[in-house]
Amino acid sequence: MRHTLLTFSRSDFFHAFSLGIGSDPRIGYHFIYPGCGYGGSCFPKDVQALARTASEVDYPADLLNAVESVNRRQKSTLFAKLNQAFDGDLAGKTIALWGLAFKPNTDDMRDAPSRDVMEALWAASARVQAYDPEAMKECRRIYGERDDLVLVADRIQAVKGADALVICTEWKEFRILDFDWLKAQLAMPVVVDGRNLFPPKAVKDAGLMYYAVGRGDSLASA
């Protein structure tokens, strides 16, 4: 049930649904906020295992298959929004990435949305400048040394000289940000927020183009 709520609440269509169902104190908002998909060692494996079990007994696993499908789509949404902001031309661009782990307070990158974003960026001939409080060694273990991946010491170094910022993990230290400062660091004033950390108006008032998840494309503003 939890991964079903997580998945569907993170699609654009279910933003209003999340607000409604989350107001029920028996459910709450903790697992039903829009975002760029789930990962880790449990949710993906559990959904896939249940779907396989259903298939083995000829039971239609429509809901489980939909959960898996929507989660895959949510993971691709960050690159899609970034690609839209750059009119499909990301070659040679440097993209700052905040957050590599699939969730805060871990170094676990299994099925993390950050991996989908990075691999799509590399396929588009872009360069990644990334920071995570815990998952730097794990990222290096997975991807090794490569020219298009620079792991930096902190979030400030990640955005210096970058063309845009993408946020994949909702670490607490990412939530406090001077938007005027950020705009001055970026070559292009583009922020793709996969975890909806910031008030849209405050970001837009600083002159940044802000692409969130589940809030509609109207929030992108020059």
Describe this protein's structure:
- The protein is an alpha/beta fold.
- It has two domains: about 1-70, Orthogonal Bundle (N-(1-d-carboxylethyl)-l-norvaline Dehydrogenase, domain 2); about 75-220, Rossmann fold, CATH 3.40.50.720.
- It has helices at about 1-10, 15-20, 45-55, 60-85, 115-125, 135-145, 155-160, 180-185, 200-205; strands at about 95-100, 125-130, 150, 165, 190-195, 210.
- A six-stranded parallel sheet has the order 3-2-1-4-5-6.
- Strand 4, helix 8 (about 180-185) and strand 5 form a beta-alpha-beta unit.
- Helix 1 runs parallel beside helix 4, helix 3 (about 45-55) packs across helix 4 and helix 4 (about 60-85) packs across helix 5 (about 115-125).
- About 40% of the residues are buried.
- Mean pLDDT is about 85; it is low at about 1-15.
What is the helix/strand order?
A: HHHHEHEHEHEHEHE
Count of individual domains: 2
* Tally of DSSP helical segments: 9
**For the largest beta sheet, what order do the strands appear in spatially?**
3-2-1-4-5-6
CATH class of the largest domain: Alpha Beta
In the CATH scheme, what's the topology name of the largest domain? Rossmann fold
Low-pLDDT runs: 1-13
Give the biggest sheet: 6 strands, parallel
**Oligomer designation:** single chain
Structural Rg: 18 Å
Percent in helix? 40-55%
Structural class: alpha/beta
Approximate strand percentage: 5-15%
Indicate the CATH architecture of the largest domain. 3-Layer(aba) Sandwich
Pfam family, one: UDPG_MGDP_dh_C
InterPro entries: 6-PGluconate_DH-like_C_sf, UDP-Glc/GDP-Man, UDP-Glc/GDP-Man_DH_C, UDP-Glc/GDP-Man_DH_C_sf, UDP-Glc/GDP-Man_DH_dimer, UDPglc_DH_bac
Keywords: NAD, Oxidoreductase
GO molecular function: NAD binding; UDP-glucose 6-dehydrogenase activity
